[in-house]
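Sequence design from tokenized structure. All designs in this work follow the same two-part layout: the structure record, then the generated sequence. An example of the structure record is given first.
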């Protein structure tokens, strides 16, 4: 285990280096001139040159690359070009709001989709199974924007159960008052694809030889599903969760925009609209690092879930 962990950490170095170089040169040569963007259409050449010098864009490329690498290592990305706010402070103040919404969404997705998928797999081939598959297909065909509009109209304007927008500095108030509606709508939307996906995982396991052996031994279908199939299907489920985890650190753009949640997702969207390169670069690099770390943790979780897994 230790040798595998060290090897994986060592492999992250060239991967991260590739991401850093890709991000740097993409923004350097394909993202437009930041000085012209910040200066605007009416800026004089002298003003653009002054902005370029202030941002350090007139320095040699290798020197700019070294500054970029140093920013990554020291977690100091300077200030936002659009708001002059420290990028580090932006992360610290926006990320809690994103996690307040996205963590419950992920938890409820997993905790609800797994039992729903097991139940559907249990009645596979029946009218109930076909009906649920039709309903999930219809749900997948509807845009999330429709869910947001209808959900706000029904739950907020008609029933008055939740406020449409708002946010405070109190975590408890946010969790109990402002987060429930976006969490509810996001979970309703995600249950359809997750249920279908997890159902396919369970059906793949049900077709294996060990299931037929368990039936031959006289075990009930419920015991087979809960004791054997669920355990073996946990590995692809963990893989799917690992794919979703980096997203909780960025958030859903639509959720944060339509519910006016001051999270990182909305800030990234604003940064893209403003061509605020320091913010975009910081988010891109850190999400890449988070993704690599999560993939490593998921691989280690395979061994915990199933001791038969050999890490190489």
């Amino acid at each position: 285990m230790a040798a595998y962990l060290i090897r994986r950490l060592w492999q992250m170095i060239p991967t991260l280096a590739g991401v850093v170089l890709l991000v740097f040169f993409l923004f350097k040569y394909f993202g437009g001139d930041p000085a012209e963007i910040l200066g605007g259409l009416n800026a004089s050449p002298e003003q653009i040159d002054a902005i370029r010098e202030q941002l350090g864009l007139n320095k040699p490329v290798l020197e700019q690359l070294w500054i970029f690498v140093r920013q990554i290592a020291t977690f100091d990305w300077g200030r936002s070009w659009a708001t002059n706010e420290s990028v580090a402070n932006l992360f610290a103040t926006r990320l809690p709001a994103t996690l307040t919404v996205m963590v419950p969404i992920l938890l409820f997705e997993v905790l609800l989709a797994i039992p729903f998928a097991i139940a559907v797999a249990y009645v596979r081939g029946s009218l109930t199974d076909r009906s649920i598959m039709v309903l999930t297909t219809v749900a997948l065909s509807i845009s999330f924007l429709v869910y947001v509009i209808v959900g706000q109209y029904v739950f907020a304007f008609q029933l008055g159960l939740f406020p449409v927008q708002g946010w405070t500095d109190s975590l408890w108030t946010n969790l109990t008052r402002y987060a429930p509606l976006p969490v509810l709508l996001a979970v309703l939307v995600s249950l359809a694809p997750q249920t279908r996906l997890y159902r396919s995982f369970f059906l793949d396991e049900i077709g294996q030889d060990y299931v037929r052996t368990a039936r031959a031994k006289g075990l009930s279908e419920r015991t087979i599903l809960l004791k054997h199939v669920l355990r073996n299907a946990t590995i692809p489920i963990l893989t799917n969760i690992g794919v979703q985890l980096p997203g909780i650190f960025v958030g859903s753009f639509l959720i944060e925009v339509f519910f006016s949640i001051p999270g990182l997702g909305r800030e990234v969207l604003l940064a893209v609209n403003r061509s605020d390169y320091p913010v975009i670069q910081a988010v891109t690099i850190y999400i890449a690092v988070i993704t690599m770390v999560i993939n490593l943790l998921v691989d280690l979780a395979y061994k915990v879930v199933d001791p038969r897994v050999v890490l190489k």
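The chain has 14 helices and no strands. We note this feature because it recurs in several other targets discussed in the main text.
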